[in-house]
Structure formats: C-alpha cells, structure tokens
Amino acid sequence: xxxxEFIGILRSNxxxxxxxETDDIIYDYEEHFQIGESKGKSEEEICVExxxxxxxxxxxxANSTIEKAENDPSTKNLFKAILSATAxxxxxxxxxxxxxxxxxxxxxxxxGISISLILGGMETIxxxxxxxxxxxxxxxxxxxxSYIFFGIGIVGLGLMIIIGTFYLSKLFYKLAVKYLKWNIxxxxx
Length: 189
What we know:
Structural class: mainly alpha
Distance between the termini: 24 Å
Strand content: under 5%
Number of helices: 8
Order of helices and strands: HHHHHHHH
Shape: rod-shaped
Radius of gyration: 28 Å
C-alpha cells in the first residue's frame, strides 16, 4: 500500500466526521508520511508502521461519538458511542457491551419496581377509600385507616426509588462515557 491508497482508505472510512476533523486527521497522516520519507523510509514501510487505515478510522469515529455523547447527553448519543466502541473489536464487544447491558437492565428493573410500588400503593388507597366488593377487615382484621396510610407509604417508597433511580441513571450515563473513554485509551496503547 502506498501513501495515496492509505490516505484514500482513511478518508473514505472517516466519512461522517466534520470537515474540520477530517482535514485535521488527513493532515496529520500526510505529515507522518513526510517525516517518514525525510528519514529515508518508503511509503510501504510507513503504511506498515501506521497500521490499518480502517482501524484508525474506527478509532477516530469512536472518539468522535464519545465526545458527542459527553457534550450532548442523550440516550441516543450514548448508544451510538457504545456501538462505535464495540465495533473496534471482539474484545471490546465483550468488555463494553457486557457491563452496559447489565447496568441498563438493572436501571429498567429499578424503574419497573418503583412504578409498580406507586401503582400498587395508589390501588390500595383507591380500593379502601372507594370501597371494594369485599370488606378488607374480613381478611386481615385491620381497619381502613391503617390501609390508607400503608398505601400512602408504598406510594412514597415508590417515589423515592424512582427519584433515586433517576439520579442513578444520570450517574450511569457519566460513568458509561468515562468508561468508553478509558476503553478507547487502552486500545490506543
């Protein structure tokens, strides 16, 4: 592979990045070739030293999506960053996707539990206040006021869990972005 082929492959694989980023990347690699040629190396030797242009492009794209996720927090940007990091290799697929999927399902589970508690507490309150087909005292021998307070407590618990899970989601987002950055830095080395 020569300089022209290397730069062409690199340019075609970094499509989607801003023009400024693309120009900077191409300029850097043209500079690598100039420095290498001034040291008496052939274009083929320089290409071997630099590595696969497709892998280099994947790395730049992953960095770009991670920066975008950091600067513009949204679920869409986070998942794009995760997917671009997992595209860097099978090792990365396991290392990045495993913890992400587990964390995501824990958050979904916590949201589900909190919503269930809120709905269950509201159902208890409405069932007692509006009346039900079967008097509650028959089953447990407890008066209605106790059940109303129990329902209010369950709704409160559900609200506390959902608020905590919201903050946990924000923390998860920040940690996921840091983890992806760390992962990219490990791969670069």
